[in-house]
Amino acid sequence: MTMESGKPLHESRGEVTYGTSFLDYYAAEAIRPSAAGGGFITPSPFTIPGGTAPRGKIMAVNEAVGVCTLITPWNFPIAMITRKAGPAIGVGCTVVLKPSELTPLTALALQTLGKRAGLPDGVFEIVTADENVREVGEELCTNPIVKKISFTGSTPVGKLLMKLSSESVKRISLGKIKASKYDSLIKYTFDAQALTIPSNCWEELGGNAAFVVFEDADIDLAVNAAIASKFRNAGQTCVCADRFIIHKAVETEFVSKLMAKVKQLKVGHGMNDGVTMGPLISSAAVEKLTMLVGEAIAENASCVLGGSPLLDIGPQYFEPTILTNVSPDSTIFNSETFGPIVAITTFDTEEHALLLANNTTSGLASYFCTKDLARVFRFSASLQNGIVGVNEGIISTASAPFGGVKESGLGREGSALGINEYLETKYIFLNV
């Protein structure tokens, strides 16, 4: 995984543990009454002819939806697969996986491990495609055998998948890597991925997460949470904090302590000892970040740390960067950077912070730091996101529901709710 995606080895090992947790979780969930074969039985409201005694029973039975197509991105090449395949296979679905063309080897290794573990042939199949992707996508979208699609990728592709799957009214789940105007620079081949999606999809789309620090926050805790959220996988995660919204009273302290922590990051090849941040997925991604930083500075932002490619290390490395005085109307503040850039603006009141945090079409994750318990509940309830982290920067786990609102997706993965995405409910009336 490190050799293919670039993330530091310790992060890859962490992802193996994280990815495995979904298999463990859904192996246990599969035998519960909420899984396939489960359901409920209840008396009917009907009565026998000429009397008042109940007639018959109502039975609802959960059944596997059928063949599922899973389309996954490159940034978590194991966990994005197991988070989908775990519940799908757990309830009895068979799976056809289309992994990112940037990380196919990790997916193929996972398939090999599945066969060693005893998965029958045909249960977990993989289609890799770097060329002829359109043809592969059309087959996956039009083949009537496919009943469900689960997709994690860009919002535009997710919308396209919904249109394609509407012809056959397939089930859909949609997840996230939000596109920006610079996406054409990056060889994600999301257009091709979009064509790989039949209709029963889980989609999680679009991030651009806000990270709010209130005046009463524990600044040391807030800085640690910011580091964890922003710089994991070089900022290339769907729930990375992008828009840092800091109260004016604590901005100086927050920026100072954040700079000190960021300077401790060691950028380099993921297999090297001590490296805490690896490369971006492509040199085009570096070009995108360079453009975004240049535009931000042109829009009166101040670059107080970093801001440039690290070409002496390699063509895919970029400095951990902090920008202050970023306008909420600027390009970078309204783009999911998918890189190690902290864009900071300030606020005066809680109402102002909420307005800034919610001013986006995305709605996947957000974060805020405060010691005020009343504010915790009040602000959480007002945020327009599917996931909220309070005084914490890493919040994903197999036992929690993961998904967004607004243009950040449909459905939920993880937790007991995640298994519902792969089930249909059949109603049987028993006149007995």
Helix-strand category? alpha/beta
Contiguous uncertain segments of 5+ residues: 177-205
> What proportion strand?
15-25%
Secondary-structure element order, as H and E? HHEEEHEHEHEHEHEEHEHHEEEHEHEEE
Describe the main β-sheet briefly: 7 strands, mixed
Treating each run of at least 4 consecutive H or I residues as one helix, how many helices? Answer: 12
First-last Cα distance: 57 Å
Could you report the average pLDDT, rounded to the nearest whole number?
90
- Overall outline: globular
Number of strands: 17
Estimate the helix proportion, in percent: 25-40%
Structural Rg: 23 Å
Structure, described:
The chain is of the alpha/beta class and 432 residues long. It has helices at 2-5, 9-29, 79-90, 104-116, 133-142, 155-166, 190-194, 219-231, 251-262, 283-298, 350-358, 373-382; strands spanning 39-43, 57-64, 67-71, 95-98, 124-126, 146-153, 171-176, 203-204, 209-213, 241-247, 302-305, 321-324, 341-347, 365-369, 387-390, 409-410, 423-430. The strands form three sheets. Strands 3, 4, 5, 6, 7, 8 and 16 form a seven-stranded mixed beta sheet that branches. The longest helix is centred in the first third of the chain and has 21 residues, at 9-29. Residues 177-205 have low confidence and may be disordered.
Spell out the key features of this protein.
432 residues; alpha/beta; seven-stranded mixed sheet; 12 helices; 20% strand; globular
